[in-house]
Structures are given as C-alpha cells and as structure tokens.
Amino acid sequence: MEAIRQESRNSYHRLRSIEEDAEFVCEIAALFPDYPVIANERCGSWYIPLHKGHGHSVYFKSTDGHTGQWDFSLRRANLPLLETIERTHGCIIVDSTRKGKRIPDSLSKTVPIWCAVINRAAARLLQSAGLDTSTGWDESLYTLPSWISRSEHAQMESRLDTFVDKLLATPLAQSPLFLRLQKPLRPLWFTPSTRLYINDPPDYSSLPFFPVICLSASKMVPGSGRLQNGYWYVQGGADDHELWAKGLTPDLFWAHKDEILGNKSECDAVIKRLVATAKHQPEEALDVGGGSRQLYDYIGETGIAIGSRTSGKPPDCWKTFDTVVNCMELEYPDIQPERPDQAYLHLNIPEGKKGQNEFYASLPRALAFIKGRLRADQSHRILIHCAKGQDRSVGIALAALVAFFDEQGHLTSPPTIDKEMDFYQHARQVFDKAIASGDAVYYETTTDIVEEGGIEFEIRYAPALAKKPQSQAVEQTTERPNPFLPYNPALFVSETATHNILLNKFCVVPGHVLVVTKDFQPQTAPLLPPDLASAWYCLTNTSTPCVAYYNCGRLSGASQPHKHIQIIPMDPQARHRPPIAAVLDAIPEKKYCKYTKSQIYTLNTLPYINVVTLIEPTIMGKVTTIEDAGHYLSDIFFSLFDAMIQQIRESDLEKGEAFAIHDLSYNVIFTNEFMMMVPRGKDEYQVDGLMMGVNSLGFAGMLLVKNEQERTAVQSSVLKVLATVGIPQGSGETRDVHVDG
Questions:
Q1: Is 641 left (phi over 0), alpha (psi -120 to 50) or beta?
Q2: How confident is the model over 711-726, as pLDDT tens digits?
Q3: Per-residue model confidence as pLDDT tens digits over 435-481
Q4: Based on the domain organization, do 224 and 259 belong to the same domain?
Q5: Local structure of 684: helix, strand or coil
Q6: Disulfide check for 490: which of 439, 457, 572, 731 has CB 3.0–4.6 Å away?
Q7: Same structural domain, 129 and 214
Q8: Which structural domain range is residue 729 located in?
C-alpha cells in the first residue's frame, strides 16, 4: 500500500493522469467552440493545453462552498468572468478534485452561489435603472440534485440575499457589467462520466440563460488511483502542485509534454533541466499555440503597467519602460538598466501560497522604490511584472495605487516634513481660538506625583470631568453621531494626505490633538504606515516634546469607534519625557531599532505584560518624507505586535488558558525615543464599587482621576491598578525577547 502511495506522488504518474484528463477537457471544448475554456486557479490550469486556454483564469475557492461556510467572496468576485460571458454568451470553467468526489466544491457549490448572486444583484440594478426584469429573469439557485441534498440547497439559498446585499454595498456594484448582462447565468455540469450530450451537443443560444459549464476534469476512482497503460492514474493529479511539480508550470509542461513524458525513468531529470533553462528562456517560446499575447496593460493614466514575464525581457523592456519591478523568482540575464534614469528591482516572491509571507515582507521595499519614481505627469513609465501578470504583480500594483493615487487616478503628494514650522505652536494658537469661541472645553487639573517602582507617576485630578457626558464603549457607539465626520472646522489644526489633525474638544492638556483618518476606519484595527506617518508628522515638527498614544479595541479605553491617534505635549519646564521612560534608562547596553531589525525588550520590573523598542536617534533625522517615516514605524509596530502575542501565549500556557487574537485589545505609546505596546485584560479598574477607566496614557505613567475615590485608589498603588487592567506577568529583570522584525 505504501508503494502505491509513493507512486501516486510521482511526477510522471501525475502528469500522465493530467494528460489523460486534458483529453476529456478538449473533447468537451470541441462541443462548444464558441465558449472560452477558463481555468479555475490553481489546479485547473494544468488541464488546459496552451492552444485551448482563454489566457485568463478565475478563482472560485472550494472553501467558499464548504458545508456551513457558504459565501460570496468580495475578494474573489470574479467580475472579469462576467465580462467574458457577456461577450461570448457562455463559458467553460475547468477544475478537478482528488478527494474521491466527482465534482469539487468549487464547481458544485461556489460557482452556483456566484451565479445566483450575480443574477439577483443584476436584477436589482436593472430594476433601479428602470429596466423590466419581471419576465424571463431567473434568480433561482441551481445545484446538482444528485450531489447536493435538498436540505443543503435550502440552507445555501437562504443566504443568497445576504450575499447580494453585501455585494451591492461595495463599489463593485457600480460596474456597468451588471446593466449589460442580457440573460441570467445558469451553471451546468460535465464530468468524465457524462456521456448524454457527447454525440448530440445541445444548442444553448436560444435558451433564456447564459450557460456556465462547470467541467470537472478527473475521473472518480477509489483509493489512491488505478494502474493502466504503464502508469498509475491519480484523480486530481494537479492538486497541490507545489508538492510534486518541482518548479514545473502548466505552460512549461504543455510546451514540452512529449519530451517530459517520453521516458518514465528520465521524467524528473527532464523537468529539472527545463525548469533551470526556463530561467533564461523567453516566454514566447512557451506560446506553442501560435497566438499573440498581450504582454502588459497600463492602469489608466497612472504610468504603471502590469505585465507577464516577457514584458520585462531586456533589452526591449528598457525601450518601453523607465522602471521595472520583477515580482517573480526568475530573472533574465543582463537585466541591468541601460540609462542612469532607469531602475530595476527584483523582489523574488515565490508563486502561490509559498510566497504569501514574502509578498507582505516585500511591500514596504516595493512601495518605497516605486514612490521615488512616480511623476505627477505620469511621464515615468513603470512596469510591475510576474510570470503571467495575474497575481504577485497585481498585488504590488494595487498597493501602489492605494498608497499614491486618489480615486480618480491622480497622484497624491504626501507632505514632506517641514522643519521650519513648529506644529505645536500652531496647535496652541488654534486651541486658544477654539476656547475663546466655545468650540473647545478645557478642564483645569491639579497634579500629584506618586513614586512607585522607580517611576514618578503623574496623577491629574479633574473633578469637573465627572460632570462631562460619558461616551459609551467603542462597540456601542456606532449609532451615535461621529464627531470626526464631519468635524468642526474650528478644531482643524492640519492635515496629511490620509488624516485630519483636530483638537480634542474636551481636554485637560492645552493643545491635545487627534490624528483622525479622513475616511471611517475602526478603532479596533492596527496602526498602518499612513497612521504612524501622520502622527510622526506632528511629533517631529515641533520643539515641544510630545507623546502619542493609541487605544485599540473594546478594552483599551477608547471612547470613539473612528480610528484616531492622540498626541499631548509634555511640559518642557517640568519633564520632557513620559514617566515610563525612566524604566528604559535602566536597560543595560541599549540596542536600537535599525531599518532591518527590531530589538525588542520586555520590562519585567513592571507587573504587566509589555513590549518596547528603542528608536535609533539618528535614523529619523535622516527621513525626509512622512511616508518613509511611516514605513519605518510600521516595521516597529508589527514587530512589537508579534512579540506581544508571543508574550501573551506564553503567559496563557502557564495559566492553562486559551489566547483569542480576534478580540485583542491593547495600548500603544510612542515618542521619538521609543514605542511601547501593552495588552489589555480589562477596560476598567473595579474595586469596592469603583469603576475607573484607564487608557494608554496610564501605561505611559500619566493617569487621570475624576473623584476622590479614584484618586485614593491610584495613590495607594498605581502599579496594582495597571496590572489589574493589563495582563499580569511575573517579576524580574528587563530582558530581550529575541523577536526580530
């Protein structure tokens, strides 16, 4: 039995099985010559010979059709397929499965859900446009009765309107494709056991729907397969090709099929040689079908193009483009730019699931490289390419569009750091005017200093705040008016490309500002480069020392659901650092965060879990744009986030508890000296009827109390209060947690 399993994993047996299944695909394609044959990525691509392929693919995941998990994915809306169907009046989607099924869930459930949702969404949009769909427009869900139980069918159907609502609530619904759709879609199924229409194919042109033919390529066989004609047939042999293909791609296989399958004993050696040769082989050599391929496409008037591997082939690429970003593992030799004003970047991102982590890690580098080469008049031509121009290059290009362009495709210019303007002096002027006009309210406070654990905690006592209307918890505020959309113009201080900087309407520190996203984003989301960049813009453009903080999640002390960072000035006459910085001074042999590595510490003298990184003083002085600062700080932020999760998991293991990252709340404090992150266990300190809220500033060493009971509790032990609302940890010396970023 083990020998059979080994044979089923052999490349030769899988490729022979794929060849056999592809014959059936070609047989069905010949019955419907007007319908394009489209691969469902990634398995389906192997079953379509080059001369039969449509050139584009779709992505219907089986997991979106798994029982109880049915979904219409907005990330995989597959609207280009709708354009193809509208033009050709039908299509053939090819996929396979190796799990002992006749049809994969992608074809038996995900595609039928997609068809029904598209039909219902189109009906609503057509009706809103004044077009009549009352007759002949079928919105039903169609599944195979022999494969899908009536109970499961009913459960799937009950969710369709929810999926339609979700689709229509997005910009995808603005596509003109819905209004151009002349007939509804209906899925039909073909498998190797289907013989009904082989000799007498139907004519669908006169029927009231466009057929979406779901073609399951592989034969259903029991166990691991069957022995025939000198090879072991493997059902769904193309599945999980990363585990057996040894770098071979579908195009490379079909271009050299006879050579690869000519000798069983030499199959692996031939594959190895072809894969190695492909590193230097132009993509045109693989186009054995003889058709011409579009090598690249420009994105509107942005000056950015997405292309296949051949589009980046030298020297021709340098005649067309000024900058080339290669997102794939393979490189052409002699790719170096021909002129000083040209540039090349190799990101080396593996294909498929293996490349996911490398893709995310490459984003900051790619965006920084692209940004420096964008021009307002789009005169600098930038090519971003991968093997087919359909995955990695699209992701990098999309990130660049979001980062550097507005919705009209116009280049946005993030402000450079203006070292001439003192931000806080300007904020104080706006504050004085807002107080005089009554648009802002200032609460007088008295300050107590409580020394504990080597930290001089600053306790602000503001009894007038007890009379201020209280905000509810973040998750309960969605129906209340958003004070940031629209904001009070009298509170406007400044702006960046992505954020408004506003005065805090109710403040106990003059010049307390909020860095607020221009569009609504939730306060439960992590800080991203634009958030951190905009906050850094405020911190660095003033001679007044400031501290920034972010309350993330329902237990963090946040009072507004709209994403915002807060910044308060320190009194330079009294102290120029938050009190918690005293603990940082005790770190022996300090190691600072460089661009390539984050040195992360946990301060075990504090009774709650924490992680902190020291910021290299000289690096930020060299940064000239707030965007560059944002990427640097983002690397720090997510390194801290990973380290914090590691600390929580270790603590939970000791206590036998489970860690739920989906509901994580935490506080972030940062200055131009350090960034610190503290997870939350509770939103309030509760004892003897007292319920006192604590936010990020508490962990910076600055607490606000509103009555004598709170004041007494804090003065008795500040660290006890913080440990109660944080997540307790053991005591000890400051240590490096060895998490690299």
A1: alpha
A2: 988 888 999 999 999 9
A3: 998 889 998 889 899 999 889 999 999 888 776 555 444 444 445 67
A4: no
A5: strand
A6: 439
A7: yes
A8: 423-736
